[in-house]
Amino acid sequence: MMAYILLFFAISAAFISGCGSGGRGYSSLQTGGPFTPSMNISNNTGDSEGPLMAFDGTGLVYATWEDKTSGQSEIYFTRSYSSNNGRISFVQPYSIHKINSSSEESPRMSVDRYDRIHLSWLHNIPSLNSKELIYSHSLDGGVSFSYPVTLSNIDTSMVTYTMMAMDRFANLLFAWIEDKTLYTSSSIDGGQSFSKMTAVTQKGSPARPYATADKNGVFYLVWEDEEMNDIYLARSYDSGLTFSQPRNISVNSGSSETPWIGVHGTDAYALWVDSTMGNRDIYIQRVSENNKPTINISQAFPGVSEGPLAGFDGTGNINVVWEDDSSGNSEVIYAKSSDKGASFSGFHNLSNTGTPSIKPQINVSGGVIRVTWVEDVSPSNKELYLVTSQDSGLTFTPPINISETAGISEDAVMGVAPSGKTLWLWVEGSGNREIYYRKEE
To answer: In what order do the strands lie in the sheet with 198-201?
Structure first.
């Protein structure tokens, strides 16, 4: 039997549309702030999309994305350096792996404790009508990368839904879908060698795998089964070499999809979207222990909720954000749990605008909660906005426009560098789109 938390059903549509920081609505979105100027770091003649960002221990910024300058999709990479005026700049981007008549897409990137850069992506093989998962690494800060190796089967199948995870000991885990099967492969030597690809499941229709590792190196892997309409979980206690028997953690009458998982210490929490109550709601479960109740975080919101993400502070508070259209317009909603996901409170409408606010991201670092989203101002103008809280989510600043352009800003990623400063990458423009960078001063 599924357990639900009793939320305050007195929360009304008025709350949903007007519960900004301190319960105030925002009459307008603000611009400006203590940020460096926006910088075009792709700056080429082809379309660029899907940026990712990572940092090494010294604070160097690494960026990768898909680029079509050559006429076909390739994986481009760049890294930061300090210019003569003390500002951050980036080296000329270059293609990681280029083969005539083929294309590369869907990059994944991570940097380990030894400052090794790990990259994976999908490689299209036209002669086989297939896409394969391949991997490369850099031991010199992105100056050069190893020759790519293939992790998936080299056959006529199409690999989809790839992901990369890493534990704090620098062990790597890769997961992907191939022939309706969820496969994994791992490396315990910094990408020098990989375990044989292993099927975690060979039934149903798995999709959208997501993984993370707790402080002891236990990997948690979740995915959606599009045939069974449920969320499944498996664990690995041996650095990703083997996984436990998959367990259905949603177990309900509705459709469950788009899982995400995060950890704090040894506590692991799965989030997903569920339609059991008749509309799309945000569900959470502490999965590091069996038989924990599933909680409907958005139960008091009558609209469609989706896109949940969470961040954890130093005391273990769970800070969750998602999209909700209960007001008739998509807004970014925030809630917090201080009891390991047993209950949630402190609901805020962080965007509270008259235009759609979509794709929220959250980062909790140094006691500061940062939430970024894309504001769909008009069909020809999308902007990237930010709010912050320095009091554990009690209050938030008014939204600040990070992108500040007249065009379309989207596909944003946010990160916090070792210095504690926030950085953003996003896609700017239409047609020949570029990758832009900005940093908090």
So the answer is: 160-166, 172-178, 181-187, 198-201
